[in-house]
Amino acid sequence: MRLVLDTAAMVAAIRSDAGASRRLLRAALERQRGLTLLVSVPLLIEYEAVMTRPEHLRAARLSARDVELLLDALAAVAEPVKLAFLWRPTLPDVDDDMLLEAAVNGRADGIVTFNRRDFGPVAEQFGIAVLSPGEAVKRLEKRS
């Protein structure tokens, strides 16, 4: 299953040990269950910018260096996506456009987000499912 994780899902992955977002990130890092995370350069930059905000570092009990190491590990196992085509502006939040672009250019099966409402109709036009982290975990478990 080829997925793009929303930045909020990445933040949830570092802030909650038991959540579905953490399970997805861990499965990707361990290369389990046929999961491939797709990342673009702009998306990795966005992950770092948001995940290293002081409030997220405090809640996750991590340092900026810890986040850097995590993102390096993610970059090592994720499939890099070259953005051959851009669709901007498409979504209500311009930051979400980079997720859609990574998903479309990377031929993703789904976008994992807590913000399903804004992605739904547009992502469906490209044949990309919009999933909550919990739904993505359930789909992965069915594939195992």
Report on this model:
With 144 residues, the protein is of the alpha/beta class. It has 8 helices and 5 strands, in the order βααβαααβαβαβα. Strands 3-2-1-4-5 form a 5-stranded parallel beta sheet, sandwiched between helices. α7 links the parallel β4 and β5. The longest helix has 14 residues, at 64-77. It is globular, with a radius of gyration of 14 Å. It starts with a strand and ends with a helix.
Please name the defining characteristics of this protein.
globular, alpha/beta, five-stranded parallel beta sheet, 58% helix, 144 residues, 5 strands
Give the C-alpha Rg.
14 Å
Q: Given the C-alpha coordinates, what overall shape results? A: globular
Strand content: 5-15%
Structural class: alpha/beta
Average pLDDT reading: 90
| Alpha plus pi helix count | 8
Q: Which segments are poorly predicted (pLDDT under 50) over 5 or more consecutive residues?
A: none
Main sheet properties: 5 strands, parallel
How do the strands and helices of this protein lay out in sequence?
Elements: E1 2-5, H1 7-15, H2 20-29, E2 36-39, H3 41-51, H4 54-60, H5 64-77, E3 79-80, H6 94-105, E4 110-112, H7 116-125, E5 129-131, H8 133-143
Parallel strand pairs: 1-2, 1-4, 2-3, 4-5
Helix pairs in contact: 1-2, 1-3, 2-8, 3-5
In short:
With 144 residues, the chain is α/β, with parallel strands linked by helices. The protein is built from eight helices and five strands; from the N terminus they run βααβαααβαβαβα. The chain starts with a strand and ends with a helix.
